[in-house]
Structure formats: structure tokens, C-alpha cells
Amino acid sequence: MSYAGDLTPQQAWDLLTSDQSAVLVDVRTDAEWRYVGIPDSAPIDGRAALVEWVSYPSGRPNPQFLKQLTEAGVTAGRPVVFLCRSGVRSIAAAQAATAAGLGPAYNVLEGFEGDVGPDGHRGHSGWRAAGLPWRQA
Predict the structure, then answer these.
(1) Rhodanese domain: from which residue to which, for each copy (predicted)?
(2) How confident is the model at residue 124 (pLDDT cuts 50, 70, 90)?
(3) What is the mean pLDDT of residues 95-120?
(4) What are the structural domains of the chain?
């Protein structure tokens, strides 16, 4: 079963600001949240959750992922927008949520920081580069 689709960071933000039931779930690791930053959910009334897809530093899948999603208020029929670093883990998260009957589930293309650019660094694309709300955790 395929997830609902891919959204650019701006399309994701537009969905989150126009649909009061939509929730944002950042599936990066705790280390990424702490050192890179997180989306600022204040403008969307706190409708966001931090739920690791894989754990750091082991890289092992989070066995509590679906349980933690439902604890964060993700349900069937409630749009959920998944975000990771570059848009890879968030695809897997959207697929897992869809398979569990949650969502519609969307993936944010380019993630929070995007891929590595020509200078060897991230941050040239994605949520932050699009100028969307974010903050240091």
C-alpha cells in the first residue's frame, strides 16, 4: 500500500496551516533534533511530534514507532506529514503509517536539510532553506 504522496516543504507547510487536523511528525533522531534544529510548531498550534524512525547511535528501527505515533494523536483519517533529514526515512515512515491504517500519510521532499550540496554540506534545500519556521531544540 502506497502512502498519500510527496510534498515540497512549502506544500507541506501549506497543508499544515490550512488543515487544522493535519499533524507534522519529525522522524529524525534525538541527536539531529538537538544539534540541527526542529520545525517550529508554534504557528500550527503545536500540532507536531518528534518520533524517531531509527535510534541513534545504533541505527536500529524504533520498535515503538507506530505506538508513539498513535500516542502523538496520529489516527486514521488525520493527515500526517513526515519529515526527516533528506526525505528518505520519512518515505519509510509514511509507508509504515499507511500500512497501519494511519493518515493519509505524506513525505516531505528534501526533508529538513536536503542532500549534500557541491560544497559537501547540507542545508541548501529542504525545510530550513525554504525559510519555513524552525528553531533550535
Answers:
(1) 18-121
(2) confident
(3) 95
(4) 5-135 (3.40.250.10)
> Quick one: which of 64, 61, 21 has its CA closest to 44?
21
Alpha carbon 59 to chain centroid, angstroms: 17
Contact call for residues 49 and 108 (beta carbons, < 8 A): no
- Round to whole Å and give the CA distance between 6 and 11: 9
* pTM tops 0.85, yes or no: yes
With CA atoms as reference, report the closest residue to 104 among 61, 75, 70. Answer: 75
- Residues 45-73, mean pLDDT to the nearest whole number: 95
Q: Which pLDDT score, from 0 to 100, does residue 45 have? A: 95
Range list of H helices, 43-102: 65-71, 89-99
- Name the helix (H) or strand (E) containing 16: helix 9-18
Grid coordinates representing 91 are: 518515505
Radius of gyration of the chain (CA): 14
Between the two ends of the chain, the Cα-to-Cα distance in Å is 34
Nearest to 25 by CA among 103, 101, 126, 77: 103
Mean pLDDT of 29-47: 96
